[in-house]
Amino acid sequence: MFLPAIISFILLIIAITLDNYINKDWFKGYFRIAWYLIAYLPVGFPVIKQAIESIIKKDIFSEFLLMTIATIGAFAIGEYPEGVAVMLFYAVGEVFQTLAVKRAKSNIKSLLDQRPDEVTIIENNIPKTVKAEAVNIGDIIQLKPGEKLGLDGTLISDRASFNTAALTGESKPDSIVKDETVLAGMINLNTVSQVKVTTAYQDSKLSKILELVQNATSQKAPTELFIRKFAKIYTPIVVLLAVLITIIPYFFVDDYVFSNWLYRALVFLVISCPCALVISIPLGYFGGIGAASKNGILFKGSNFLDVIATIQNVVMDKTGTMTEGVFKVQEVVFNSDIDKDEILKYINVLESKSTHPVATAIHEFVGKIDHSIKLENVDEIAGHGLKATINEKELLVGNFKLMDKFSIAYDIDPSSIVYTLIAVAYDKKFVGFLTIADSIKQDAQETINKLNALNVKTTMLSGDKTNVVKFVADKLGIANAFGDLLPEDKVNKVKEITSRNETVVFVGDGVNDAPVVALSNVGIAMGGLGSDATIETADVVIQDDKPSKIPMAINIGKQTKKIVWQNIILAFSVKAIVLILGAGGLATMWEAVFADVGVALLAILNAVRIQRMKF
């Protein structure tokens, strides 16, 4: 990458030495011009070629055209060393920019794409090393302690401990038991384990995350889009001003010398090149996306980094967001005149049709599903529960709103119990209820404290009982809490906030809450380690389900925006000063080079800085 610049630099140094220190009679006239032209071509030809290609694509006033006009103009007025030097430094600056972008991309790739190229599979009870791409679904991978898993699969061994840092940013060991999912990039920590492959190499979770992060910059932030639009208007104005700087003094200056004023105009052109902005701003956003992915937060576009930096409200779901989402049955309170075990069997079969965490809790409490029990007319009623027919009798399992909906009379006050209640009715009669409890996540309190410190208002919305939601909200210090909500009620609550012209982040599971996610300015999904659907739905995905990553995401957005604006102010300030000096004849091409290439390099170094920050 540096070879053309090195050749050009050596030829330029020889020419300057022959011009100023070793005066040779033969280094004059056409031979001197040809020497400087040969020194110019290695660095100048690629830029001239790109300027022509841009013109063909109707992008006439590009930075390549500015540099071409300025350096060819320098040759036209006999300033050969400066013409070569400007293009040489510009070329070196472009190489450094390319290296910075490549480094930023490779940093992100190394963070995420940690899969081994080869894996050990068991074939006829014999270990065999093969390329990871060649492994088929259903193959058994043998994983020694310290080895990384190459493909997604399920654990066949009874138990194993894994480092999940590649996926979540957290190096804390994660214990996985038989038949649970393990993902590419996880590192086996203790015993030799066996994993059955469930996903092709190119379809693994890590591949999708890597693709998502690498493509995130295709969704431009408003600042980035503005700078690109600005450059398209700004560049032709600069060219026009350069022409005017050359011509207008003719009518007002007594000792007008065309070559002097043309030189000033050419300096003006070099200074005004917008490459510092055009390169460093996208790199700043790319750095923010990389810093977030390093911490297990996936942004789907740089536009979301911009929005989240100015967020005023965080609206969150309760179950699985601020609480573990791991329910346990606490007690079963049934009428004395019914067969408790039989009803529990019925409930277990019915709940097996649902993926809700409550269903899992009931299944774990009751045990094996009795497949001899036949269900008919199974219906899931959103925000209420489940309904089915067993033995030609109607079974209802859900919240007390379900009882009200079907006019089932009950003799308890649900609001008096600070637990999630599952009401049960059979054959048009209320038979009792189960109480289910969920524990608050360890970092939930820290999350709310940090959001309060950022002056972000917090609201909890849940389909769970109002008194349960209020209990959790009060414990954590969440400002507003609403329970007993249907999906459309959540939408209305968020609309209330947006109607006040306030920005909203909604944090939920990203699938059931799709309408609210779509309505909010930024939708954050607690993606966990297994849900592809959440990655598809949300704008931001928190991979390890930790709510403390919400204020971290906001902070990364704020720092990214800060760095981007630092670069904009730096570029404009330096350029404005040197432009005025250049137009007044007080700045030479050397100052122009600093204002262009120097500022670009400073801005790039500043943009890369975000990837080293601690959040």
UniProtKB/TrEMBL annotation:
It catalyses: Zn(2+)(in) + ATP + H2O = Zn(2+)(out) + ADP + phosphate + H(+). It holds the Pfam family E1-E2_ATPase. Residues 115-214 form the P-type ATPase A domain. The chain crosses the membrane at residues 29-48, 233-253, 265-286, 568-586, 592-610. It comes from the Bacteria. It is found in: Cell membrane; Membrane. It is an enzyme of class 7 (translocase). InterPro entries: ATPase_P-typ_cyto_dom_N, ATPase_P-typ_P_site, ATPase_P-typ_TM_dom_sf, ATPase_P-typ_transduc_dom_A_sf, ATPase_P-type_domA, Cation_Transport_ATPase_IB, HAD-like_sf, HAD_sf. This is P-type Zn(2+) transporter. It comes from Flavobacterium okayamense.
